[in-house]
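Give me the 3D structure for DUF4267 domain-containing protein.
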Amino acid sequence: MASQVNSHLPLPPILLTCTKALAIVRIGIGAASFFAPQLTCASHGYHVSEPYKLLVRMMGHREVINGGLLLTAEDKEAKDGGIKSIRRALLVGLLADSLDICAVVYGFSRGEVESTTAGILGSAAAGAITLATFILRAL
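Predicted structure for DUF4267 domain-containing protein (139 residues):
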């Protein structure tokens, strides 16, 4: 796919805003999951017992890392303004969100996840995938 943005021009502000917004949401969700796993999961209708907080924290720090990668991907000094780095960061998030949907579907099919929780988590991942795809297509 050919880039629609001239590699010698700065990225359009709307793309930067969307990219930064997605990054900040990832960091926020990740930080909340890391520091308050029970509260974060309860807001999604998912109860996490004490022994499983560690797993939620592990998911949380991955979201923070993905968000940080995306937040810092723009490079005004690079020839392309960081487009290659932004694409790579978006693809990492896209893969993570796609696998989240697979995990939700698998858990739901086994009766491990209630329909409300599956809907919330699946919709959140689908929303992130949609925004990342929109940005990728525009780059």
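Helices lie at 13-35, 37-42, 53-71, 83-109, 115-138. Let me know if you want a second pass.
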